[in-house]
Write a structure and sequence with these properties.
- With 214 residues, this protein is mostly beta strands.
- It has one domain.
- It is built from two helices and 21 strands.
- The strands form four sheets. It has a seven-stranded parallel β-sheet with strand order 3-6-9-12-15-18-21, covered by helices on one side. Strands 2-5-8-11-14-17 form a six-stranded parallel β-sheet, with no helix packed on it. A five-stranded mixed β-sheet has the order 10-13-16-19-20.
- The radius of gyration is 17 Å and the shape is globular.
Length: 214
């Protein structure tokens, strides 16, 4: 599934099972987007034409990012105004991904099963257009790296907003930008996020059943 520009937004991708994609290249995954071209529309306010767009939703999907896919949901090159929530996302190298000018990318209430890291944000953010990552379950596939983001040494008011995530790693520890989670939280960020050891497959499948009401 590919969204090859932003246009007016308002799209909803709901209730899909997608797998066996990206078989010739691992450079994206079951879902890929980019937004390299601004458009003038009046979708947000019928009385005004602007480059503003409606939010897009990716929800209630089961994505299997096999064939070493880079992400289950790969938001490339300026992708903006995406709300990705209540999905079961299996495998991949990354959870939330945003880069090259992307902004307003929100991931919440997702389950990332056996991923390389939960969140890798390579986009420099602006106040009022931050990325959010919260209330997710993320099972790491062998690494202890939970998240990293560009600009981590810069002003904290443009860091991605992160909170209340449940992280699971092989040894029950994890890092943000190479810093132990507990130490990172002393900065006042990512409060409510916890880390523990990886649960059984049955537990993870149970999360998926609960997520989809099965």
């Amino acid at each position: 599934m590919n969204y090859n520009d932003g246009f007016g937004g308002g799209d909803i991708l709901d209730g899909n099972l997608i797998f066996n994609t990206c078989r010739e290249s691992s450079d994206h995954g079951p879902f890929n987007s980019w937004d390299r071209q601004p458009y003038f529309t009046n979708v947000v306010d019928e009385s005004i034409y602007s480059t503003d767009m409606l939010w897009r939703e990716i929800r209630n999907n089961f994505f299997i990012a096999n064939y070493q896919s880079q992400e289950s949901v790969d938001n490339d090159d300026g992708s903006a105004y995406f709300e990705t929530h209540h999905n079961f996302l299996a495998y991949s190298g990354n959870g939330l991904k945003n880069d090259y000018g992307g902004h307003d990318n929100v991931h919440h209430d997702n389950i990332y099963a056996y991923t390389g890291k939960c969140m890798g944000d390579g986009a420099t953010q602006l106040v009022g257009h931050l990325d959010f990552f919260h209330d997710n379950h993320c099972v790491l596939d062998g690494s202890s790296q939970y998240a990293d983001f560009e600009g981590a040494t810069g002003p904290t008011d443009v860091w991605p907003v992160m909170f209340n995530n449940s992280v699971f790693s092989p040894d029950g520890t994890t890092t943000v930008n190479g810093i132990d989670l507990v130490e990172f939280q002393k900065s006042g960020h990512d409060l409510g996020t916890t880390v523990s050891t990886i649960p059984s497959d049955d537990v993870i499948i149970g999360w998926a059943r609960d997520l989809f009401g099965l």
